[in-house]
Predict the 3D structure of the following.
Amino acid sequence: MTALLLLPLLLPFLAPPLARRTVRRLAPVPAVWLLTLTALALGGGSLTTLGALVLTGLLRLSFFASLGELVHPRCPAARSSRS
């Protein structure tokens, strides 16, 4: 699972060569829009990935792990197994 979380962190390193190719092939205005939206998507993906990594790290601490006991599933089979 951690390897899949690292993939969005590595994707921005592929962006510069693709950005150069995009600038050469498109008109300036669409190229700027495309590069802006791509930068926002890559930034959002990186932020989400870092948040997931921090969350998995925090859940290893006893205080945050105990908060997981506050969540009770709605499945009746899970309730009967707890009692």
Notes: The mean pLDDT is 82. Helices lie at 2-10, 15-25, 28-58, 62-66, 76-82. The longest helix spans residues 28-58.
